[in-house]
Amino acid sequence: MSIAIALHLLASTIWVGGMFFAYVALRPVTVDLLEPPVRLTLWARVFERFFPWVWAAVILLLGTGLWMTFAVFGGMATVGLHVHLMLALGVVMMLIFLHIYFAPYRKLSKAVDTEDWPAGATQLGQIRRLIGINLILGLLVVVIASGGRYLM
């Protein structure tokens, strides 16, 4: 169980922490300093390196979360409301990530490869909004995970 918890926390830290860094620190600097071709290329390459980590996080979070819920705690009927909320919000986050990965990210990569900067900017804007939503959901999940059983 302690290995599952450690992997679960590590995966959530990588995913939510990565989104926080990208949204709060990296994005404002790139907007201030870089022209669109360089900025869009940078983001395409950043996502290229970050998204495999998100895939690993999604697999680990789902696997360890479900394993702990069913193998350790006896199923969804026996866990608290905070676990139900974490699972629901986590699934929404995963679905948003899947959409980002298979739609605007792929279009951003293609736009960068073909140097279609206006199309790339449109896709990056969509990714930014969706990552913003996922960041808020992820921070909410952290609050629920750390204090949920005491608050509910």
Automatic annotation (TrEMBL):
What residue ranges are annotated as transmembrane?
50-73, 85-103, 131-151
Source organism, top-level taxon: Bacteria
Question: InterPro entries this protein is in?
Answer: Cu-R_CopD_dom
Asked whether the UniProt record includes Repressor among its keywords, one would answer no
Q: Which residues form the Copper resistance protein D domain?
A: 44-146
One Pfam family recorded for the sequence: CopD
From the record, what ranges are coiled-coil? Answer: none
Q: Where is the signal peptide?
A: none
Assigned keywords, A-Z: Membrane, Transmembrane, Transmembrane helix
Task: Please identify the protein, giving its name as recorded.
Answer: CopD family protein
List the source organism.
Litchfieldella rifensis
